[in-house]
User: What shape does this take?
Amino acid sequence: MKKNGTAVLRTYTSSAVRAVQAAQEHGMNLSGSFIFVGGEPLTPEHVAFMTSAGIEVIPRYVTTEAGLVGASCTNRKNPDEMHLYQDRLAVIQGPEKRNLLVTSILPTTPKLLLNADLGDEGLLTRRECGCTFGKLGMNMFVSNVRSRVKHTGEGMSVYVSDLENILGKLIKRFGGSPGDYQFRKILEVGGLERIAVVVSPAVGKINENLFIEEILNNLSGLNDRCRLAADMWRQISMFFLVRDYPTVTKGQKQPLFISDPFRPGL
Ligand SMILES: [Zn+2]
Assistant: This one.
């Protein structure tokens, strides 16, 4: 930074927030630098935190199946508005609310996709943009991208259904029922997210440390990807126990309750 006047970092969204927090703690001035982020949603809280440190945050949207789906330019209208890579993919909004259906139009795409639902939701919009992407005719944008089926934290993704199965079996051992538990996403400073493991007060006494460790151990045992996630999430204390009744929305208990996942217009 001192030598060249600027710096570029490419990392996961939450890792970027932690890097900025660490830099601030050491009194470093990061203004004028760029961070390319991806791997997990970029929220207004993330952007506000990094922008306040003078950093330009550029989101990218990459999936295993489709490769690079989109990337932002500096003219974006909301925190994660990204130019859709129309040279390689066609994306439409599915019949369900906000789900994205992806079709590959290049033979080099990792997988051949035809209106494939990758489990992500987002908003599709069309507008002109004065940047290089816009001049090339890339006038489709995707924003507010969130996964319906995975929880992503620190760049590690795990199926919510796997987490739910683990917690369901544990709660059963403690004498609880399927209506007695839920994961609840909690927003923290800088837009970092943690997961409250909500267990009904009707279930008996639980030792928090042992209970959370058991969730992580079970997660570790599923496969290599989950083991990596468990190791990372153990280090940052991703899970904590809350004794409360699960939140019910529209008569249904969602396995992962997110209070306000979409913030259009920001
Ligand atoms: Zn642009």
Remarks:
- The CA atoms of residues 184 and 196 lie 5 Å apart.
- The first strand starts at residue 8 and ends at 12.
- The chain has a mean pLDDT of 87.
